[in-house]
Design goal:
The protein has 216 residues and is an alpha/beta fold. The chain is built from six helices and nine strands.
């Protein structure tokens, strides 16, 4: 499977974030998206998810525009943004089951419980998420990764609000996904071993009037 971006341009208001942006991502590849705050990283990630319509260019999944694939593409995609995407009035387990249902997957309760145990939320399954700390809420969101069958993970600052142990665990989850043929695009301001190895890098620069950026 291949994600291909061709000559992408995104404008916010009267400001061009990036233009002529092209890159390709294939199975078993991890891409680190870099750039200063305001350079367009989140806009690009949301565009790749079909949540923001680019001004020019194409986003292709296996050679076909994502606009023409709709649900077929969404089934292969897991997006984790700045917000955790959890409902405060639901319990931890209910949130995980709800998100799995939205993704078209309904794992067994045992599978969901195993994911919560792995992510460090053992015995929290019946807690309303409104009662959790920010780090625990983030873990609820990250538990989605453990039950996801999506090929492409798009992760915007996934390490935020996590303690050292959780950061290490998340790195292993991401690495395992890539090792098993998965694809990951992520942003992070934290220096972690996962992003210092041999990975693809894409830099969005505000310098030089936003000249085209390309994946290394």
């Amino acid at each position: 499977m291949t994600l291909e971006v061709k000559n992408l341009q995104c404008i916010r208001g009267d400001r061009e974030l990036f233009t002529d942006l092209s890159f390709q991502l294939e199975e078993s590849q991890l891409m680190m998206l870099e750039g200063q705050n305001g350079s367009g990283k989140t806009t690009l990630l949301r565009s790749l998810c079909g949540l923001y319509l680019q001004d020019q260019g194409e986003i292709l999944w296996n050679g076909i525009s994502i606009k023409k694939q709709d649900e077929d593409y969404r089934r292969e995609l897991l997006y984790l943004g700045h917000l955790n995407g959890i409902k405060a009035d639901l319990t931890v387990l209910e949130n995980l089951r709800f998100n799995a249902t939205l993704a078209g997957k309904i794992p067994s309760t045992d599978k969901l419980m195993q994911a919560l145990d792995t992510i460090g939320l053992y015995a929290f399954e019946d807690f309303p998420t409104s009662q959790l700390s920010q780090g625990q809420k983030r873990r609820v969101a990250l538990a989605r990764l453990l039950i996801s069958k999506a090929k492409l993970w798009i992760l915007d600052e996934p390490f935020v609000a996590l303690d050292i142990a959780a950061v290490e665990l998340l790195q292993s989850i991401i690495a395992n996904h890539v090792d098993n043929g998965g694809m990951v695009i992520l942003t992070t301001h934290q220096e972690v071993p996962l992003t210092s190895g041999k990975i693809k890098r894409l830099s969005l620069s505000e310098e030089q009037d936003n000249l085209p950026s390309s994946a290394k």
